[in-house]
Amino acid sequence: MKILVLNAGSSSQKSCLYELTGDRLPADPPPPLWGAQIDWSHQPGKAELKVATADGRQFAETMPSDSRSDVTAQMLKTLWGGAVQVIGDPTEIQIVGHRVVHGGQDYQQSTVITPEVKAAIDRLSVFAPIHNPVNLAGIEAIEQILIHVPQVAVFDTAFHAQLPPAAFTYAIPYEWRERGIRRYGFHGISHQYCASRAAQMLDRDLKSLRLIICHLGNGCSLSAISNGYSIDTTMGFTPLEGLMMGSRSGSIDPGILIHLMRQFHYTADGLDHLLNRQSGLQGVSGVSNDLRQIQQAIAQGNDRARLAIDVYVHRLRSQIGAMLASLGGLDALIFTAGVGENSPSIRAAACEAFAFLGLKLDSTQNDSASGDRDIAAPDSTLRVLVIHTQEDWAIAQECWRLQQQASVLSGAG
User: Fold this and answer.
1) pLDDT tier at 411 (50, 70, 90 boundaries)?
2) Is CB count within 10 Å lower at the N or C end of the chain?
3) What is the pLDDT of residues 349-399, one digit of tens each?
4) Residue 44 — left, alpha, or beta (φ > 0 → left; ψ -120 to 50 → alpha)?
């Protein structure tokens, strides 16, 4: 089975093609046959396309970006023609999976895309105005090119669908909750993959584990996993809630917003830009949203850069403690995504606060850069794992499962 995955963001899109054989999923993620990335952020009015194949071939092109669907079509043509061709024709693709950021209250699992599902994704754009529209554009682009191929929506909110009411309800008038204003949680595809991978690495049944997963990238979120489900998480109604992030503020006193509107005449759009684009590490440091550049500034004696890291670590420790309270205990702490996977200093600083629980790091393993690993010392009471998150593979797995279910149902009929 050949599965195409599209993971669309506001200014970029990652895509890959997996080939699966046999009647069960492989234990370890296979490398994709083909992978492509489109970036709209580097040159105004231009899209940069980069493609690489499993056998080492590469292709790059810059093209006009007037239409996202046209750029996507050009990208897809490299699958069956040109220097990075990996299939004979489009009919070899059997199913397409899409990351969709917001599924609202209605979509609590991956779903085959129908006109009704598309309408819901569009309707839910009011909750995710940056992401859902581009996710929908990717779906519609595939409809035009791979006309009869089934498509699957894998929702980033779905893994958090089992949050208990006490965790997803805001302390606001109840009728607001009935209008959909509640905590949803995000990064669910990553959290789900890392939870399953942790169980595999620890050789334990996932349902027996209590896990805290730290997804630390430009966007950051934590989840508390019990009995295989997310029971608490830091992001809420939007991805703005929770931890300090690259350019997002994370949680702040809502009274600040009222103050800014009253005293400085901020508009909704102005506050949106301030909190999502000019805050977090970027806002406090005045240097960058990139942790590496901030650390370089610290080495040069930049006090604001040092303060930014101190606030980041303080908030991270505080929220890990909150997740720990929700779980009532812990078997493993997991770090993933760009910062989580690549910053030994952030991992060490986060873990240092929990030495009273008997958590000990193996400094050699923590400083290593060799893939998925346990970085806890042998005598640590808790395991600490670094896991390379593979959202695209998680989406492909969901497509495979739905296709298998459809085959079983078809055979039964």
Assistant:
1) very low
2) C
3) 999 999 999 999 999 999 987 789 999 999 999 999 999 999 999 999 999
4) beta
pLDDT for residue 412 is more than 60:
no
Please give the structure tokens belonging to residue 79: 């699958």
Least confident of 146-150, 338-342, 376-380, 394-398: 146-150
Domain ranges within the chain, ordered by starting residue: 2-155, 205-386
Contacts of 135 (CB under 8 A, 6+ apart): 8, 98, 99, 100, 101, 121, 153
Q: Name the residue with tokens 């970029």.
A: 12
**Active-site residue, from 39, 106, 156, 232:** 156
Q: Is 156 a catalytic residue?
A: yes
pLDDT above 60 for 270 = yes
The average pLDDT across 122-139 equals 88
pLDDT value, residue 404? 85
* Pairing state between β 151-155 and 95-100: parallel
Predicted pLDDT at 66: 67
pTM for the whole structure: 0.91
**May I ask the CATH architecture of the domain 205-386?**
2-Layer Sandwich (3.30)
Written as six digits, the tokens of 246 are: 């690259």
Q: Are 207 and 174 in contact (CB under 8 A)?
A: no
2-155, CATH topology level: Nucleotidyltransferase; domain 5 (3.30.420)
